[in-house]
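agent: user wants the structure for Gustatory receptor from Anopheles coluzzii. delegating to structure tool.
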Amino acid sequence: MNSHTNTSPFITQVVERYSCKHRTYCRTMPLSELLARLVHLKMVALGVVPYEFYPATLSLQFSRSLLVYCFIIAIISPLGRCCVFLTTFFTMKLGISVVRYTAMFRELLDAILLVVPPCYLLCQHAKVKQLFELSVEVYRSSLSLGIFPFWQWFRTCLLCSLVYDSVYGVNVAFNLVLPSAGIHAKYVQILLWSVLSQLTKSVVLLIIYGSAQYLLRMVDHLKDHLEAGRLSTNPVYQEQIRQQHHGPAGYLMFYEQLAKVCETLNDLIGVPLITYFLMALIHLTFVCYLILTKLLVRWSYITWQAILIAGIAIASYVIDLLCLMRIVGTFARTREESLKTQKLLLRLNLSPMDHKLKQSIEVFALQTLHQPIEFTACRMFTLDYTVLFSIAAAVTNYLIILIQFEMAIEQ
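agent: tool returned. relaying tokens verbatim.
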């Protein structure tokens, strides 16, 4: 039996299918390396990644001095904004109001919630490095080396991050430009402190979204390989298929690497995503409550600038929530593609085949059942689109409670 002379037809099909992608990858790699360096510099400067990055070897080097710097950046920005807000709140003596004390409560929660995700990732820096190394190991696998659409993945992640940063930048710009009566100096300080903390949040979301997109594309890649395969009664061909499933660089090993990436990513994403979903819930509840109380109680004092700023604030919070849901949607799609891989294996197992090949496919199918690629938030709930409906229900409930309090105080 000569495996070199009896090359299976579907291998040739897969190689031809991805040869064009490989040439595109080689042409765009220098630009991708430059952009990767810039993104890494942004992650370090904003206090999230305490590593030195070496693109030539795709490796990270931990730096204790960078870790200290990252902790300082991650903590100082939210606390600085909170201190400016609280000093302004207590010195202005605005009196008792549900709106004012709700704003103070929201600001205190924001300071805590903005600190938690980056500090959590910094405390788990060894696991972050492990996730990177596992991803590089998957990338260097014989099933994906030179074929993975690196530039498309990088462009998708970078575009999402730029949209998120641009929306918040537009919000800050309108808050600085639109007020006609002038801007309080303390308010400008709050906005400036907010920019740094929001950029840090953007980097954390970029890491999570990039990891989710990477895993999704790898699972798609594995599914494409399985779909391209065609079974035959030829014993030589079936032995080649068995080696591709159960060999040292086969589908079984590749899926095991993906399952390790999924497990490590699950350990990292739970706390940041729960924190940011809680922030989105608080922000949407507060801004909707503020607008409703203004409309119901003080309609005659509302200016068009205030209406426009409120609309922009709602739009930015909704886009913030939609970015989170895009991340959750990526996790849900990855799970769906993984389930399709299971169905493909079960369908192959029904075909007439050699006993050894049948046993290899059964082992692979059992592994996909015992090591499912799915994502949870600290194992409390599955990350899917039902999270959006839960947030909408919570915002409605809290709005009703706050408006009832406001109406009682006004009476």
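agent: one observation worth passing along. The first strand starts at residue 51 and ends at 54.
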